């Protein structure tokens, strides 16, 4: 029987390989053929790694021939955001600064997915150093939204989301500092999860805002996201990341248990917010009534200090980014400008030429915010706001299991449409507060918007280390919108079926 990767979930690929329906090598070739046929129109990748994918596949096929038990993601094609180190690839963070930087080691998150059997097919495009919401700040090329090439895939993990939506990877990894997994997932019609801060190791992931950054999965279904979460957390706490905690668990265990008796929080102020597109509002309301029909109770909750979230994030984020990016000085790391007379000049010129506009804006802002006299007014105030937002969430999760809201005020926008940086920052209004508090969140597609015809979806937020509960509620939403299909949305129509066939 012929297989097409477009129709297979990660779970089905792994079981197909384990049962001998096809080999991991055949899967790798099918994924590479899909990339050949589709990537030109999408631009999801900065680097392709066919040799790594084939070598990983060969190891899995040998293990099967030797009669060994196969790992849970055996043969699953994986795309890795280009701020994560993987030996044998560059880790450019989509910046000229790191254009020639070779990964000296493999990030724990990637390593764990390789151990779980994934086939790394390439490094995914992103906003430069993960600053942005559209992938437009990549120094190398744009990534088109697979549902409409005139539109952005979202960001900063735009390549990771687009690869899964285009079916050139079955699962992918992104990082989320202020929404960079959840928002591109919504724009591309796939599932994307930001786990609880500390649940997934950040070791080997280029830091943006160390107190906010978290790695998480993209896939076309909640089940596959849960499967990847199992892989990412297997082995427990990573001693190489001081903030890492043991979140290892069977993420599939209660996935199908439903939401009977559960309490779902709705924040009225967020539903009435200015700029929320009617089609997004309607789909959140629709999801709420479906959860109610499935036995959950809707409860109004307030997050009183949410209006301070964007301001406090755009203080804390740039302040941390400024410290983290100081190492890219052309001496220890990164692009080195030739011909400078002094070390200071060399560093200044290397940074001036190595970084793009947005990366400079964030660092200049961060330097200013941390300077003496200014520090108290902004950074200290932002930390106070952070405490209040975190307390709001703690109080809300005493009343409810999860909170339901939009992932983004609107569906994917056109290239250049949010040219004013402040406008772009404001579009992060639904995702940012979660990183400030450290809680987990997930974006689940619900279908195509009635007005735009583009993917729309909802976001669920959960209590710290309530990642499994979050997935269970997300699965209930997915089940109600998927009408018995494996995922709410298929591989984007412009991509589906081109390559990807398995003999
Ligand atoms: N859009 C937000 C920003 O530009 C979030 C980015 C992210 O999560 N990496 O900071």
List the helices and strands and how they pair.
Elements: E1 3-4, H1 10-19, H2 24-42, E2 45-48, H3 50-65, E3 77-81, H4 108-115, E4 119-124, H5 158-165, E5 171-176, H6 182-188, E6 191-194, E7 214-219, H7 222-233, E8 263-266, H8 268-271, H9 278-293, E9 297-300, H10 309-325, H11 343-354, H12 357-369, H13 375-399, E10 402-405, H14 421-426, H15 432-437, E11 441-448, E12 455-461, H16 467-482, E13 501-502
Parallel strand pairs: 3-4, 3-5, 8-9, 8-10
Antiparallel strand pairs: 1-13, 2-4, 5-7, 6-7, 6-11, 10-12, 11-12
Glutamine binds next to loops.
Write a structural description.
The structure is a single chain. The chain is α/β, with parallel strands linked by helices and 503 residues long. It is built from 16 helices and 13 strands. It has an eleven-stranded mixed sheet with strand order 2-4-3-5-7-6-11-12-10-8-9, sandwiched between helices. The longest helix has 25 residues, at 375-399. The protein is globular and about 65 Å long. The model has no long low-confidence stretch (mean pLDDT 97). The chain binds glutamine (GLN). Glutamine is lined by residues 130-133, 156, 176-180, 208, 317, 428.
